[in-house]
Design a protein that fits this description.
Shape: rod-shaped
Radius of gyration: 35 Å
Distance between the termini: 133 Å
Strand content: under 5%
């Protein structure tokens, strides 16, 4: 090849090189995917975006578009996973709210775990946009989480719009976690609403049981006044009746320690009124205490 030909080839080679650099620099996987989606070429758009991720591109719009692709395919869990990965959620807030709400509506019956996750993400992005039904559903999700945030969120919902079923589920969850004082505290905050509820007997069961458990705990810790306070509260509620003889018995023993023999005598009599035929356990011990008190001149 002559020298002039070689120079022409080199010039052409450089042009091709710079042309390829221009093409590569102009290639935008997001724009390419959006163009494909406009033509309803979903599979190709998906491939372009997944390839971009594979090559290290971590842009929010890529995750958003992949989420929307999987939402169209009704692959709700995959869609949710990509929406969760969107870094700049505030920038895409409006579209995320729309998409997350669609995931929730489509999965709340068939896929409740996915629905809960979508609601939780919606709550993190725009708590003010939650509808009443969504707030209650999210509250049930929060019940599974043992956190102060959950308690605050549920209390906020109940103050806005009291729901006896949610309240019952909430205090039952607290009771099952041995959070007896929290049960009592929430009951006091919503006592007026609770007493109007058709579920009041069910709610009263957990509240009364919590008063009894707290009274028993303080009895074991030898904190007399605190124990008497909680046991007396339970006794006044009389719900559930199951613990009544035990509560009167514990309270009677505490009254003896305080030196109030009249009250102690009354409490032990109540134990035997409830358990007249039982010849063992607290009933037998109550008989023996009453016998000693009578010998000392107390009682009839």
């Amino acid at each position: 090849m002559c020298s002039e030909g070689r120079r022409d080839f080199k010039r052409m080679d450089r042009k091709i090189f710079f042309f390829l650099i221009f093409i590569i620099s102009c290639y935008n996987p997001i724009k390419k995917a959006e163009d494909l989606l406009k033509k309803d070429r979903i599979e190709e758009a998906e491939s372009v975006l997944l390839y971009a991720l594979k090559k290290g591109k971590k842009e929010s719009k890529i995750y958003l578009l992949l989420g929307e692709i999987y939402l169209k395919k009704k692959f709700y869990l995959s869609a949710l996973k990509y929406f969760e990965k969107v870094l700049d959620k505030s920038k895409y807030k409006k579209i995320l709210i729309k998409n997350l709400r669609e995931i929730y509506n489509q999965t709340k019956k068939a896929g409740p775990e996915i629905a809960k996750r979508s609601l939780f993400l919606l709550y993190l992005i725009a708590p003010e946009k939650l509808k009443i039904e969504e707030e209650k559903a999210l509250a049930l999700y929060f019940l599974e989480k043992e956190s102060e945030e959950a308690d605050v969120f549920i209390e906020k919902i109940l103050k806005k719009n009291f729901d006896d079923d949610l309240f019952l589920k909430f205090i039952k969850t607290l009771f099952d976690r041995n959070k007896f004082k929290e049960v009592i505290s929430f009951y006091k905050k919503f006592e007026e609403d609770v007493k109007k509820s058709k579920l009041y007997p069910n709610i009263e069961f957990y509240v009364g049981s919590s008063y009894f458990e707290e009274g028993k705990k303080y009895f074991e810790e030898e904190k007399i006044d605190s124990s008497i306070f909680y046991l007396s509260k339970y006794i006044s509620m009389k719900s559930p009746e199951l613990y009544l003889p035990h509560a009167f018995f514990l309270k009677g023993k505490l009254e003896l320690l305080k030196g109030d023999t009249t009250m102690a005598y009354y409490d032990m009599r109540k134990v035997l009124e409830i358990l007249p035929f039982k010849q063992s356990g607290i009933a037998q011990e109550a008989r023996e205490i009453l016998k000693e008190l009578k010998l000392k001149g107390y009682g009839g």
